[in-house]
Amino acid sequence: MAELKLDNVSRHFFGVQAVKDLTMSIAAGRITGLIGPNGAGKTTVVNMITGLLKLSGGRILLDDRDIGQLQPDQIARLGVARTFQNIRLLKEASVIDNIAVGFHVSDESSFVAQALGLPSVRRTRVQMNERVRKLLAEFAMSEYAECLAGELSYGHQRRVEIMRALALEPDVLLLDEPVAGMNDVEAHELGAIFRSLADRGLAVLVIEHNMDLVMKLCDEVYVLESGELISHGVPEQVRADPRVIEAYLGVAAC
Amino acid sequence: MMDALAGYQSILDLILLNCGLALSQYVVLRAGVFSVATPALASVGAYAAGIAALRLGVGAVTGLLIAAEAGTVMGLLLSLPLARLRGVFQAIATVALVQIVLSLALYATDLTGGANGLNGIPKLVGTPGLLLVIAAIVYVLGSLGRSRIGHAFDAIRQDETVAVTLGISAVSHQALAFALSGAIAGLTGGLMAYHNHSVVPEEFGFNMLVTVLAYVVLGGRRSVLGPIAGATILTLLPELARPLAENRLIVHGAILMIVITYLPHGIVDTFLIARRRRMTAAARTQDLNEAANGRA
Amino acid sequence: MIAQQLLNALVVGSVYALFALGFTLIFGVHHILNLAHGAVFMWGAFVGLYAVTLLHAPFIVALLVACILAGLLSVALDWIAFRPLRRRGAPEFSAIITSIGAGLILMNIAQRVSQTRVMRYPFGTFPIEVYTVFGLRVTLLQLVIVGSVALIVAALFAYIFYTGFGRQIRAVAINERTASLLGVSPGRVYFQTFFISGALAGAAGVLIGIAFNSVHFLMGEPYMLRAFVVIVLGGLGSIGGAVIAGLLLGLIQTMTIAYVSTDLSDAVLFSLLFLILLVRPTGFFGTLRMERRVTRA
User: Fold this and answer.
1) CA of A53, closest CA in chain C: separation in Å?
2) Domain range for residue A96?
3) Which of B89, B182, C110, C187 could be bridged to C217 by S-S, CB 3.0 to 4.6 A?
4) B155 and A116: CB-CB below 8 Å?
5) Closest-CA residue to B184 (of B20, B29, B74, B55)
């Protein structure tokens, strides 16, 4: 499947260097972690990968294809999906409608068919809804199908966002603090789902502050501080790295 | 008796024409584009149709096709510069456009008849024609609205960043919205030319801009029934009572203020949302029951 | 000849600047596009006229009264139209719509009050004196207009940049929530900005009313459209920008009318606006509030 590579990527805003010379790769079939103190530039990295921010320097390669100049929607169609740090769902729409937006790219009805209201359009819609329900079942949220997104608990809203990203049928999944606000049980349930996604071949990036989860889940970890990469390796290596400990791991003696 | 009927018919005609304008405004607002260019687009269509009939002697269908095409082309041209602007700036740019078109219409006397406009256009379209065209527009917009394009418009309008990261091209959808808006406005302008015998430049100015906006604000910008309801109500209102007709500005103004504050989705959409809530509450109870039974 | 035209441009431009200042202040500080500004301007002109014709007040008093009442009208506008929207967390689209509505209502009331007539100042309201300066014909009125605008702009600048109140306004312009957490009362700031904005519009209304000796309920509309050009050209929320852009606009308009064609002056103006929006929508000068998201990052 796909591999995402960042090659010496930089970004500055009016003299503030948000990200500096970052080189990292997110491989298929693995869960890669990106950690660092708040303000380290993690979300900026995701914004650059997904095309919402331009690069000040360096390249971003999806399977050796330079995607640094592409528009966000083009990048998404190439199979790169993401979730947001502060949940961005359509609160006034139902869970089904929220997730269905992600299936938009796979709807191939022609303009004429849509304009005339041909039966094929109705059929496509029915198929979409089927796929949404399947996703809901996978995430054990079938009974919430018709609920308004705004009425769900925080944890459930995060799940809906993840399902929406998965609706894109992506090769690369970028998760920005996916278990924030969840208790350990919920977090580990989701972690298991991420694991199965990676096992299916997706390249998964997890930005998180929940150290327990990161250490247990990630195959490799990158540590960012003030926009620079200060450590990289398997979780045990990173945890023992004095620079990382100094940056913020603190008293995690386990 | 015949006079009364004729009176009703002319109101119906007016409602239909205003629906056309409202639908043109509705399309762009639904896609999250804050464009108020409809009067300019309708003006172009009206002049195109009028000139075609007067100078080239074309029939109704050809003339209307020309008008629709003119509107579409202009809408598409407009989408290019406006793709880079958002919100307030799109509004300002399109207000400027309405002024520019108005000025040009007044200035190019040879082509457009200047301040006098075009007169003596044959009446090529009557009530049946209006009904047919508007009904067709409503049908097309309705089915588009229920399909992928409509949902894309909604996504872009509600959160463009999210829509874009889900693979929806904001640029091409907004261009489409402009094209549709232009086509509908141009067509309606052509209908106005052929129905009213004349094209007067001042008709397509700031007054129309505000009125058309009021139609969509009142009715709603998601369901296709919104602009229709808004146009119908605001067209009928002055007919109901003399004071309403004389104080048109206050009525429009008050409606804009009250609706946008207390019913920001417009009357049709507010009603539909409430109905949806009742339905989903029922469906949710059912789902929960089934889940409970399944677990039991 | 050209120097005379330049003088005209200066006078016209000053008034545009004055009108645009109030408009850009509200937009820069609160990000509200107050489309009822033209109606407030018009009511300022009305009040000024009625003060002279009904109360037989001297011109300077009429001007002051008009400023104060226009300021209060503007505050009332905020209370009735914009505050309910703030309470409900409404998007900026709503504020624009409601301001259009408020403007319409104000215009309609003016239409009824004036019975759709064009009203004029009685002869002798303002002394007609003409001076010859460097071969140019300058009237006292023109001097007063340019002088007042210069004074007002200077006072505004001083207020915003050199007083405590001004600092509060600037704080709110940058971030209202943070400012309120730091002890600034947004309510008081709204009162001040709207009052000042209204007073400026009122002053502009009276000056224009007497300059063209014409006061009618639709007089605000052409100015609103020109205000768009000014704020886009000068940068939203920029006081200096509004002044410079206003003068520039006066220049462009006067030159177009004098040397090209009166009919086309509108088209030229708005084509210019269009062009600027394409090239540099945030205008050419700094703003009270930093960058405003207009296009993709």
Assistant:
1) 6
2) 90-167
3) C110
4) no
5) B20
